[in-house]
Amino acid sequence: MERNDAEIRHTMKTKTHSTLSILLATALLLPSCNAKYDMVTFDAVGTMPAATTPVPKIEINTNVTGGMMGGSVKSNKPYAIRAHYMDDTFTFASAEFTKVTVTYADGTTDPGAAALKLPMYFRHRIYESHNSVAGGAIVVTKSRIIQAEFPGTINRDEPFTLLIEGKFTKDDGTIIPFKITEKYDISRDKRTQSWADFVSGC
């Protein structure tokens, strides 16, 4: 499972680096351009206890957008909650989410999460990863992946506690319930710098 999760992250990083390379080439021709960016990141606080049963992995999508040649790069509310589960056993058919709650430090809940029409049901699809091995051969590895996204569920730039409940259904009809309770803190990266420095990561 960890291998496939790492491959997903590697594929996403490769696409990002390709895009940044194009932006850098453009930026070098326009050294006077500046990028202003205001980005937030939500990081899980602490380490979740090792799960004894399968649970989805969670990430927060802050909808980052960027302008070319002197534009701005920023996170845009409302944000989305994403969940995924990699299945190397080819036995998990679907996931059903029955509860998604975002609770802020003052005890209020986010109306975006409360407005979700639950339960929400997501079927698996086949995920393929391609890896080169000695001799130049390409090895294709397949697994199942269940992906879910809940848009518009985080409307404040504040720490929160996320509660997600649901269940997996396997091909043979077996039901595996899951529950996730996780606290998230927020960090903000706000600055102005040359666009060339920004896209090159300086």
Molecular structure report:
The protein has 202 residues and is an alpha+beta fold. The chain has one domain: Immunoglobulin-like (Sandwich). It is 18% helix and 51% strand. It has three helices and ten strands; from the N terminus they run αββββββαββββα. The chain has helices spanning 2-28, 111-114, 195-200; strands spanning 34-44, 57-61, 65-66, 72-74, 79-87, 92-104, 120-132, 138-154, 160-170, 175-194. Strands 2-5-8-7-6-9-10-1-4-3 form a ten-stranded mixed sheet. Strand 7 and strand 8 (138-154) form a beta hairpin. The longest helix is centred in the first third of the chain and has 27 residues, at 2-28. The chain is flat, with a radius of gyration of 20 Å.
List the SSEs and their pairings.
Layout: H1 2-28, E1 34-44, E2 57-61, E3 65-66, E4 72-74, E5 79-87, E6 92-104, H2 111-114, E7 120-132, E8 138-154, E9 160-170, E10 175-194, H3 195-200
Parallel strand pairs: 1-4
Antiparallel strand pairs: 1-10, 2-5, 3-4, 5-8, 6-7, 6-9, 7-8, 9-10
Total domain count = 1
> Percent of residues in helical segments?
10-25%
Largest beta sheet: what is the strand line-up? 2-5-8-7-6-9-10-1-4-3
CATH architecture field: Sandwich
CATH classification class: Mainly Beta
| Overall spatial form | flat
Biggest β-sheet strands, sense, barrel: 10 strands, mixed
The ordered H/E elements are HEEEEEEHEEEEH
Our Rg estimate from Cα atoms comes to 20 Å
Quick check: average pLDDT?
84
What name does the CATH topology carry? Answer: Immunoglobulin-like
Describe the structure concisely.
With 202 residues, the chain is α+β, with helices and mostly antiparallel strands. It has one domain: Immunoglobulin-like, CATH 2.60.40.
